[in-house]
Amino acid sequence: MPSTAVAVLRPFREPVLTLWPYLSRPELLDRWLGTTDMEVAIGGAFRADLWNGDHLEGTVLAVAPPSRLDLSWRFEGPSMECDVRIRLEHAGPGSRVRVEQDVPATDLERAHACGWWREAMEALHRAVDEGADARQWGAGLPIVLRTPLSRTPADIWPLLSTARGLEKWLAGAERFEATPGGSFRFISRFKGNDVIEEGRLLAIEVDRLVELEWEWIGQGWEKPTRVELRLEADPSGVALLLRHSGFGAVAEEQRIAARRNYATAWRDVLHDLQRLVAPGPVGA
Fold first, then answer.
1. pLDDT at position 78, please?
2. What does each C-alpha distance from 70 to 18, 56, 96, 229 come to in angstroms?
3. Which of 59, 63, 62 is nearest to 72 (CA)?
4. Same CATH topology for 3-129 and 143-277?
């Protein structure tokens, strides 16, 4: 599908030469981005494990110290790759960083990319200008993943909108009332533990959208989160666009665990869905 670039600009008190190592040296990337392994050369591999549960992997496309770093990366899992362009510019005695990321041309994905980079740049600012350990950020960010599926919306829809279909890739569906206001109860296993997720359907639009209000029972969240499963046009035929939001309203002591767990779990179940629809016919 068509893509567009989102841009985030952030000023810094420190000059470009001070800032560049925070984008290119693993021990300094660790102070704001996460545990990072990067070969700073064209074609070099890049990987980062973030405190909030996000995992990034990709390749260095271009590098020109101390002003340019271009990457092709994706969030680990069955998500699409995107290009990221980082520019360091002189600004008086200080500097500024401009980040551009190519994303599919949907409002949801543009908003997510902008929010993600604003938080990342604020963490970089704390690390560089304040000398802080700023790696603990993003606990309230939504999880957004786009999974290409080589099928039509009609093929995929039964897997999103029926108990039998959901059980093939997401969780056991003890109850799933496919109507707005209907309730659901999912049962699964995660890291060796039983998981019960309950809530209600907020919206359902045939061949397009299932929106759920969602809570992991017994975790003390206090507030439910929201899961949107959208079918979007894609060169492969159709893509599932997942957005899991509302972590910022979860009880503070549970928030980071909730987001980390789902950042991992959604990658696994979307892999399962992708494998499910790859061969053979899809049934309800």
1. 66
2. 19, 14, 16, 31
3. 59
4. yes
pLDDT of residue 8: 96
- The pTM assigned to this predicted structure is 0.93
What pLDDT does residue 75 have? 80
Measured between alpha carbons, how far is 78 from 147 in angstroms, rounded to an integer?
6
The span from the CA of 30 to the CA of 126, in Å, is 13
Percent of the chain with pLDDT over 70: 95
Token reading at 97: 């960083």
Inform me whether the pLDDT recorded for 26 exceeds 70.
Answer: yes
Place 280 in a pLDDT band, splitting at 50, 70 and 90: low
Which amino acid is it at 111?
A
What's the rounded Cα separation, in Å, for the pair 197 and 100? 37
Q: CA–CA separation, 65 vs 23, rounded Å?
A: 10
User: What CATH number does domain 143-277 carry, 3.40.50.1980, 3.30.530.20, 3.30.470.20, 3.90.1640.10?
Assistant: 3.30.530.20
Cβ neighbours of 219 (radius 10 Å)? 16
Domain ranges in the chain are 3-129, 143-277
With a CB cutoff of 8 Å and minimum separation 6, the contacts of 54 are 34, 48, 75, 138, 263
Which homologous superfamily does the CATH classification assign to the domain defined by 3-129? START domain (3.30.530.20)
CA distances from 66 to 16, 17, 20, 100, 128 (A): 7, 6, 5, 17, 15
Task: Please say whether the beta carbons of 266 and 143 come within 8 A.
Answer: yes
Span 89-99, pLDDT tens digits: 999 999 999 99
Q: From residue 225, how far is each of 35, 67, 217 by CA, in Å?
A: 28, 40, 12
Please give the pLDDT value at position 228: 98
